[in-house]
Every structure is written in C-alpha cells, then in structure tokens.
Amino acid sequence: MSTPWAPVLIILALSAGAEAEALKDPTRPPGNHGQASRQPQAPLVLSAVLQTRPARAIINGQVLTIGDKVQGWTLSHIDKNQVSLVSGSRRELLKLFDDNAVTAVNPTGH
Fold this sequence. Notes:
The structure is a single chain. The protein is built from one helix and seven strands. By secondary structure, the chain is α+β, with helices and mostly antiparallel strands. The strands form two sheets. A four-stranded antiparallel sheet has the order 4-5-6-7, with no helix packed on it. It has a three-stranded antiparallel sheet with strand order 1-2-3, with no helix packed on it. A hairpin with a 2-residue loop joins strand 6 and strand 7.
C-alpha cells in the first residue's frame, strides 16, 4: 500500500541535505568562505645543473629543460652554476653555489 505523502517526504528529505550544504561554519574565521585557502609555495631550490644536450636543471626535485615551468615560473636559461626563471615581467636567478658561502673551520685548528 502506497501513501500519497511518500513523494512529498522524499522531496523534503532531499531538500534538507541541500540546505545543510549552504550553511556556513560559524567557527570558521572570517574571510574566504567560498574559496579554498592558498597554501604558501615552497621556495625554489636549484640542486643540480646537468651539462647534457639539452642542458637540464633540477629545481625542487624536478628535472627541467629550458621552457619548462615550475610554480608558475618558466626556466629561461641554464648556466653551469645558475639558472634564470621568468614569470611575466619578473626575473629570478637561482644559484647552485653561493659565492658568499663561508666554509666552516675548526677554530682550535684540530
């Protein structure tokens, strides 16, 4: 035996779920309720330059050639100890070795 209220009850049950999705979390801090929060990107780190043909660079663990992209930057030039990256009008230079690096020396001379 079917009751005439069954379709109405099903519609009400389905609409209650949609209404619950529209509610905002009152414990969430003010700001971008509708947008996912952006995670800060890791800094770009040049760990190796491979003098192959074509030349390759390892940036943040990715093997890249000229024209490849990493975190929105395009690899534009590869030298033996550094690479150049561009993003719009911005340029970034990553060095393999820091020219100003200090070598640790044992102060006692041993």
